[in-house]
## 1
Amino acid sequence: MANLIDTEKTRKHLALALEVVHHDRWIFGGLRDGRLRVMGDSETEREAPVQPIFMELSHLSRRCLFERHPIAVSSVVDPIGYDDWERDWPALIYVPIGVPKTRPVGLLIVGCSKEHWYTQDEIDYVAAIGVTLTAPVSSVTGPLGRLSVEERHVAQLLAEGLSDVEVAKALAVQAEAAGALADSVLRKLSLHSRFDLRDLFPYHSRIRPHLL
């Protein structure tokens, strides 16, 4: 249930953030088995799917993820139809979701159904939004998706640099229980150090040396 609430909040924040960028549709999601697990689509926001929706990655999507940087496409050709918006629409921005210079965890696509030339400022702005989506996308389709709600909370606290005693106070549990949860988090994520958790939480990377 926590994933659904977090995803809904993320979709609302994304819609607000993209209001300043010219577009007719956006879609974002996490990578799973070489496909995109859709977490938000502005065309179907009123119809929350019961089952996860998976989308095949287009050539430009794969190129964006492989090169790990945004790709903007603009064309003066009028749209032929709307069966395939990525192929037909004249203006699209593909942005990898993830921490810069690391392997992307997802993809954000923004497009216009009519001719538009995206400026570098717009591209940079959408790219910055892609970075902010790292944690919520990872919590659903990335490594964090392997954790329980309680374990994800512990992972975030550890990424912020809290000790077992501090985590115990935050969760109102015994220090031994907090330590066991911390060990469980590292084991499920196949990590050797708490320092490695900062890559999963790009805005919580203040790991203190004595915790390593």
## 2
Amino acid sequence: MPKADAQGLALLQRAHRLSIPFENLDVILGRGIAIDSASVFAKLVTARRGGYCFEHNRLFGDALAALGFEARPLLGRVWINRPDAVPNRTHALSLVTIGGQEWIADTGFGGAYCPPMPLADGEEVEGPDGARHRLARDPLFGWMLEREGPPLAEGAPPKGWLKQYSFTSDEVFPADLETSNWWTSTSPMSRFRNFRLASLVLPHGFASLTDRRYHRRAGDTATAGTIDDPRVYRMRMSLMFGIDLSAEEVSGLGLFETD
């Protein structure tokens, strides 16, 4: 069993993201997203599905508490593709205190993978895909997490330090999480209401599926393609992401024309 220290935190977060995919398919299928502990465990563990940040970090937070870590949730604003407007607080992550030092940990950011890192200005860490991540204080939004490295998908912005998300260390209450989760899963303006997303951390890379566009990077090798057959989509979801969908569920995602 991992110890309640920095190394144990890193091992737990990596194991979580290697095993449980990020996905928002139940949002598109109109099923709603419950983020209480029992519902999240039933979906992500018992039913072997994935989820998005509010689900992942609820499950991870419960695991941390059971293993003796001191942890609490935080809320953040995702800045990817939002250069000119302040985004809502639609991202959840965890603040973990180890020996008096605060760390951020995150099992639920679907666009990239950042290992746990001390909450300190200028702190940097490298992910399994070779990308660098750094923290910087932000005068308006508290903290900003940035990423520099290989693009995660075709058409991604050029290399350079790019904003991922900002957050503060303010106390977050259950009502705050419920409100943010409700907006994220129901608002027509939410990305999760407009795209079908899945991603998974690989031992030395990252795989993602956005609607019908697939992208996989492992080391220096990258592959990409468009899925034109619902049977291939269903197979890809199962083999790559471990998400088993019925033919009716794939049809309900509205990705493919029907007769």
## 3
Amino acid sequence: MHIRYLLFALACVGALVSQQTAVRAAEAESALKGLLIRGRMLAVIPQESADISSIGGSVDISNAYVPEVDLTWFFTKNIAVEAIAAITPHDVKATNTSLGNVDLGSVMLLPPTVLLQYHHPFGKWKPYVGAGVNYTVFFNEDAPGGTVTNISYDNSFGWALQAGVDYMLTDHWLLNLDLKKLFLSTDVNINNGAIKANVDIDPWIVGVGVGYRF
């Protein structure tokens, strides 16, 4: 008889735990509703130009190919906000200066960007456009030595434009193609300010990836 009571009590506890687990799962799903997470591979293609004091010339900045993670939150069916972040490494050189081509070493960029988007679904196709603001942090400046012993870049704000499309594979999984244009400039100090440059980087950013919408 005691064993029956024990089994009955265990069954009640099990049912209660199962019910609470289901409730919490439903609450978590409800909290995430409207969230879209994507992972992309990016091609970052600078459209660079520069005004360099003392030695003249322009600048050449290498392309970068990096992974990226972004989060998009839908306020309505059509309006969303996207936040992206990635770290991009670039090699830099001054070109056609009075000293010839000058190696400026390398630098890393962290350009977090927030965009307000408009989405207009067409069946499984979900095209969108966006505009927003970017703040780029320059770090790990590596001067090559020789002519250039010291180099620093100023962090800066810039504008961003975006166009892209999601293709729904299922109710949740999707493929993504994305194009961004950043309007990004920085002031550069070389050899503790002996040479100064105002550099426009203005990259195109092409992304391809997958996503999951809750």
## 4
Amino acid sequence: MNKRDARGLAAFLVAALVATVGVTGASAATTWTVRPGGTISLTSGLFTVKDIPTGSVIICVSSALSGTLKSGSGHSGTGIGSITTVSIRECGNLGMFTLTPGDLPWRLNLTSYNATTRTVTGSISHIHVNISDPECSAAVDGTSGTAGNGTVHFTYADGTAKLKVLTTGGNLHFRNVNGCGGVVRNGDPATLSTTFAVSPKQAITSP
């Protein structure tokens, strides 16, 4: 290859890279359509909190959330919804644990959409949950016990109106642990796990 051809190839590759970066940037600026939006409720059966290193799990019989979703089209995915009330019920053996949500409202954020499967991925942010029983207290949060910046990721299926909280991708940790006998430990990574039925059924699409 002579120098002229090499320069031409280099220019082509640079142009292709610029075009690719431009496409990626446009993709990151996705907008969302939500119907009907408005007031929503999310209800689940078993709701679990797990200390990953110790393997300890607090199992709650059910949970119920309520909040709002923006309606219509052209919305950013960040803060497209909010969770204003959270109730987590009958936790641990004979309901000995009390789980008290804090730093409400929690935020619903949307990040990507698979048109083939009609599945949304997103996150719930601003999470804080206090855990207590007669001999144990702790908080589940993000970077500190008072930060109110815990995050979990989820998938939502348009077809079934089910929102599944994932055990990967979040930043939850046990914080401010007092007592607990090593069952949960300060600084240990934590997960929340449950599947919510969303009502009324939402059609969430992008663009």
